[in-house]
């Protein structure tokens, strides 16, 4: 009781909880779920963009894309480490992913169909992710907050790079402009859905807010994202595929159309265009890599035994 | 090598050989991105690939500057045909054992590691020597590349030892990859008019002189990995002279498809 | 479908859908050439592929004739981008289970057979109906294609039964392939403005009306093969409307690379 | 003794030996070796040309190439059947191929590196093969002779198609002409080596001649091939890569340069550029196909048992 009171006081005072501190079991579980899901998203998220590395149309863009996908892997790595401070191993988390018990961001269950998808993922998907993640930099759990600070910095860089790549394409040929518009058409609504269901329907929000894990509601974040993105789209010269999108001077925000939540839930529940392919590819990589990990372990053990023998 | 060949022609051809090596292996290593055996290896392969693409860009930029006209790093990488590429055949092979160009099978990490080992063991020596090239730009690229390549060599060597001195399966896979790839290293030492001319005027290095040092690096690592050095005999590939395997055409078809579908476009 | 759409536009789009189906599956089936499980199957796949390429040529020729200008069967096959292709997504998938576009693994003959079965079961019905198309050329192509497709269906069905009612392994592989591919058949019955318009004026067939007959062919074969009919649920692919999977881009990059490297050349 | 005398008399009279006839064991063995090697060559020979099916630059050429590779598979099929009449099974022959005990034509151990290789293989490789094979249509062993009649007819068709494809390319762009010349440069000498070592060094020729299996010597066939090909090369407008090639009016034949027999023997002995790749690809196809063949067998057995049960 006293521990809980102290914990709640620290949260209320916007203090940080650290791994060695006492925490309620539900808080720990919620964080493990959220951080590992975020880590899985980074790892699965390597695949849609990785799909274009081999075909990047210039060496400069190839290098930028490899570096970006590498950063995503790196984010996955720190996030797994942050989750490990809560008493779960990477192997357990991967097992949960591979067996379908753990989720990852549903946005990665859509295919990347043209080169502009790479830029649009940077601009819109990373943009939406940053909106979701910036509040997490002030999250109550220290290791997660610190990981998010680093991740948000890199993500902002990726977002600018994505936007810049699209600007170049929009100044190019008609075929290039068509690619950008096609990519925007396919990704726009999916990005809006990334903020999660409307606040009224969102089960985790209230508790998350109280614990200082979540700090801004889904609908607020979505509106913020739209308000920030519309002017960028205008500069770029693309049309956002929503006829209802327009400035509402009374609200001081853009109004927007209805999100297709059926499609969203279908994909979240495993029936998007790429759910099976993404997961099966990760499982295959893991299984194919078993002998490599085994070799490293066996060698390390042999080394240790040799060292012990020499010491004896 | 005709009598009218200038040092500029030789420099261009020699830089292309170095650049093509880097771009082709960079392309291959990046194929692991998202498919590696453990996240850290996805990152390591991406890193190595980035270094190689970076080396290729610097080298192509130097080449383009000497060719003049509309030539850019990207016209060199994207608008030359396979017969114009001057990379070692070793570097264009897919990540698996010996199969024809249109076979399909799983990627094998042992093949990747052994190739990176054999190649980076050579390149630490090549870049070291090229730091003393009479061409200042090339010498500068060599100095930068040497640091990167030392890391590539350490990475590949560490894994070679882990695989060789790991489990029975990993040992067998590493040995099979070595048996498959070692014959391709004969190409390192094979005659090449461009290399000879480049060495003659102090631009390049006579790779043959590096062989004892390369042998020592290889033997030392194989001993630690408890692997048997495979014979480097049989057919001597000629990729550096423009005669490739059935694999390069497919690699370039994929790498170049988008750029070629939009000739002249800026990205 | 805008109000200004003419029957010529619809005819062109409808012929392209049929032609793209044939060329993409023909390309896939030919990948087995030299790699089949037994010589007779190399020959059978080559034969099916030849029939499909032949169908594609006739259909593209008809399309080209209606488009006029410099359009030929080859500009249609080789110089359109993936978003312009109108084939069923099912037909562009590689010969293995669900993986992303740049994964690599062995080819699986069960996937090949199940796909050929599901598709040719539909196409015997489609071609049969199209024999009564108001377009005489299409009706003639349908009559020829029907004969070929009956053979393709018999071939695939025979193997489906052998695999399903063969060994435990072959049963499991056939079932896995069916589970993987069956959801893609939803696209057969999905709305398509082009198909609707083509059916409306007697050029095409309303594919939805063929569904009971297709179900009967499938159920009958699966019963004999002792396989469980997998659910055709979840995401409905949209290849016939131009929205493809990650696989088509790679297929076309390879198929088109040589033709596009030599624009305007005659072969 | 009497059997042998009758056999030799039949051969001397240019008669045919049929499967049910008595034959010397050495004759049987020689034929099995030769026919199965020929069958293996057809099967392995599908790979170099198969390499270009997916990239054929027009649908017409794609169809022609698929049909051609299919014909090669068909030739392999009849030749295995012809060899089976001598009391060996296809499985035994394949096993000999896959284990490296049986050979196949060394010409297929070179890679196909550009599209013109397909035409040049038709023109030169098939052309050389036909020169070798036409005498076999009169071979003393009936099933082999009949198979060869059909095969030679189809091969001649392929040769004309290959030559025609090259004519079209030579009338095309400079890049197309360069492809043809490059392919001719790579294949010419290898085709001359296809006729086998000079007569002086050829171990099998004498016995083969006596038995009516081989009817014309290596060097005679090679000369015949060169004499037929040089004028075709002139019409085509390609240069055959032999500076010593010139008409010798005294001999009534073309003189030609030295064949690199070291390279030939190196390739025959397993060290060509593609020996491992060709064989490993065939072995992989066979191994990967095991479950398919097993399924067919298992199903056939089940069918048979059901038929027996119904009959009982």
From TrEMBL, chains B, C:
A Pfam family reported for this protein in Swiss-Prot or TrEMBL: PaaA_PaaC
Record GO cellular component, one term: cytosol
Organism this protein belongs to: Tepidicella xavieri
PANTHER family for the chain: 1,2-PHENYLACETYL-COA EPOXIDASE, SUBUNIT C, PHENYLACETIC ACID DEGRADATION PROTEIN PAA
Matching NCBIfam families: PA_CoA_Oxy3
Protein known as: Ring-1,2-phenylacetyl-CoA epoxidase subunit PaaC
One of the GO biological process terms: phenylacetate catabolic process
């Amino acid at each position: 009781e006293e521990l809980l009171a102290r914990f709640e006081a620290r949260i209320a005072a916007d203090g940080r909880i650290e791994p060695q501190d006492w925490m309620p079991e539900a808080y720990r579980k919620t964080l493990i779920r959220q951080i590992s899901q975020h880590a899985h998203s980074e790892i699965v998220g390597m695949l849609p963009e990785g799909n274009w590395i081999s075909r990047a149309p210039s060496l400069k863009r190839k290098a930028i894309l490899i570096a970006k996908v590498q950063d995503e892997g790196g984010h996955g790595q720190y996030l797994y480490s942050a989750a490990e401070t809560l008493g779960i191993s990477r192997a357990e988390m991967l097992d949960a992913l591979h067996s379908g018990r753990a989720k990852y961001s549903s946005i990665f269950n859509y295919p990347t169909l043209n080169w502009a998808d790479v830029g649009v993922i940077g601009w819109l998907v990373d943009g939406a992710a940053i909106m979701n993640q910036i509040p997490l930099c002030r999250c109550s759990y220290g290791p997660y907050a610190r990981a998010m600070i680093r991740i948000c910095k890199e993500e902002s860089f990726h977002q600018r790079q994505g936007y810049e790549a699209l600007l170049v394409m929009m100044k190019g040929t008609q075929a290039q402009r068509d690619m950008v518009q096609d990519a925007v058409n396919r990704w726009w609504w999916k990005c809006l859905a990334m903020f999660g269901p409307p606040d009224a329907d969102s089960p985790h929000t209230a508790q998350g807010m109280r614990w200082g894990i979540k700090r801004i509601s889904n609908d607020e974040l979505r509106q913020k994202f739209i308000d920030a993105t519309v002017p960028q789209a205008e500069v770029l010269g693309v049309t956002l595929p929503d006829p209802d999108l327009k400035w509402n001077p009374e609200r001081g925000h853009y109004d927007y159309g209805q999100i297709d939540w059926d499609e969203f839930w279908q994909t979240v529940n495993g029936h998007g265009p790429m759910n099976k392919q993404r997961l099966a590819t990760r499982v295959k990589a893991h299984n194919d890599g078993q002998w490599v990990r085994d070799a490293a372990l066996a060698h390390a053990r042999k080394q240790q035994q040799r060292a012990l023998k020499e010491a004896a | 090598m005709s009598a009218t060949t200038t040092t500029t022609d030789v420099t261009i051809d020699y830089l292309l050989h170095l650049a093509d090596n880097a771009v082709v292996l960079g392309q291959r290593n990046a194929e692991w991105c998202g498919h590696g055996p453990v996240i850290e290896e996805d990152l390591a392969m991406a890193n190595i690939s980035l270094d190689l693409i970076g080396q290729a860009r610097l080298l192509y930029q130097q080449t383009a500057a000497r060719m003049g006209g509309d030539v850019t790093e990207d016209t060199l990488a994207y608008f030359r045909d396979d017969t114009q590429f001057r990379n070692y055949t070793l570097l264009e092979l897919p990540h698996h054992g010996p199969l024809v160009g249109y076979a399909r099978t799983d990627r094998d990490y042992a093949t990747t590691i052994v190739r990176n080992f054999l190649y980076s063991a050579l390149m630490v020596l090549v870049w070291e020597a090229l730091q003393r090239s009479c061409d200042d730009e090339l010498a500068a690229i060599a100095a930068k590349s040497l640091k990167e390549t030392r890391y590539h060599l350490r990475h590949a060597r560490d894994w070679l030892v882990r695989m060789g001195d790991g489990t029975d399966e990993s040992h067998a896979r590493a040995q099979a990859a070595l048996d498959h790839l070692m014959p391709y290293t004969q190409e390192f030492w094979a005659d090449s008019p461009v290399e000879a001319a480049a060495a003659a005027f102090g631009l390049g290095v006579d790779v043959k002189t590096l062989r004892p040092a390369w042998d020592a690096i290889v033997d030392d690592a194989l001993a630690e990995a408890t692997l048997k050095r495979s014979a480097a005999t049989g057919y001597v590939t000629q990729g550096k002279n423009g005669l490739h395997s059935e694999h390069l055409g497919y690699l370039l078809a994929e790498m170049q498809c988008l750029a070629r579908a939009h000739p002249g476009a800026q990205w």
